[in-house]
DNA sequence: GTCTATAGCGGGATAGAC
DNA sequence: GTCTATCCCGCTATAGAC
């Protein structure tokens, strides 16, 4: 720790910057469209320099996903003390911010490209999907027990429905803008009983 | 018409076959991954032969979308006499069949790739999305009026929620198989009041 | 850690023969 | 309607200099 502070600018944090740029491309274009040249150009280096840090494109994308998954886990911890409604809203706001920034979550791009991805990357997509859907189901279960949510069916099924709605809404938002996205968010509130309940 | 019958096998219906194969690739891989070589190989011809029928890749994809849209309109006519619940189920079964065949609807692949598509193709995606969401909203409106559906919020908002759920479920199904997809379909039944209604 | 140079491949598209 | 041949481009990845 203290040794790291001794050379704070010893080297530019290139590895981190590469991950940042790659993550952005994954969310804007997906895996198959971007290239090492795109990343190298933004950093003002040559594509061989990227290969020094990540031997193959697959390695790079897997590294991005590992970081992405760890960040999601940390995020769930930062919101776990909030009321269930606030947690649900916070999650939907994540998707909304993606759309506002002309991106979509990596589950959208990599899910779509799934059949064309290298196997180690497919594995990461599966794991991330598991983590998100599992967290979602637990949230809905707790929220219903506490009386914050009100809905029919299993919490697991409702979690799958809302989580997939968020995926699809990002596709809708990418084409039609933020308005239609927000309309869906509002409707999600209704189906989990966060506003009016019975017809 | 009769002149067409005079030479029923005069030429192999290559143009149609190209459209069929391209459509399949669009649903399996999206626009950016497949190439003229992939199509040519399946037909047992060279890629130049495909260029004879469709000058550019963009032209070909647009032609596929025009046919796809026309087919959707015809499909809505074949189901329009059915009860609202049956129409909703028929639509969800379309998505389910995509997943069973290792595909997803073109709105999933082309929506994801939207930012990278040639402009004429973006236009087609927008139009198809319009047609599907508009049809869906009208269906939910009619179904609620007739007492077949029961839900809170506007029909338009509920239509957007269910339509986006179908998009996202195809991504889920692509990764995790048909089970999770069917769980979502069942939950859709619940939120539009097709089974138990009040908590 | 970044460079130049290059190998090797596959893509979109065209010209002109058959 | 399909072919061969070709152009030019961009991609992944590596070798070896600096």
Strands, helices and their partners?
Two copies of one chain form a homodimer.
Chain A: H1 2-6, H2 14-28, H3 36-43, H4 47-53, H5 57-79, H6 84-100, H7 106-112, H8 119-145, H9 155-176, H10 178-191
The first copy, chain A, binds a DNA duplex (18 and 18 nucleotides) through residues 11-12, 14, 35-37, 45-49, 51-53, 55-57.
Rough outline of chain A: elongated
Number of strands of chain A: 0
Distance between the termini of chain A: 59 Å
The largest pleated sheet of chain A is described as:
none
The CATH architecture designation of chain A is Orthogonal Bundle
Task: Report the CATH superfamily of chain A.
Answer: Tetracycline Repressor, domain 2
Order of helices and strands of chain A: HHHHHHHHHH
Provide the helix percentage of chain A: over 70%
Q: Which CATH class of chain A applies here?
A: Mainly Alpha
Instruction: Tell me what portion of residues of chain A adopts beta-strand conformation.
Output: under 5%
Number of helices of chain A: 10
Radius of gyration of chain A: 19 Å
Overall number of structural domains of chain A: 1
Mean pLDDT over all positions of chain A: 93
Name the features:
homodimer, DNA-binding, disordered N terminus, 199 residues, mainly alpha, Tetracycline Repressor, domain 2
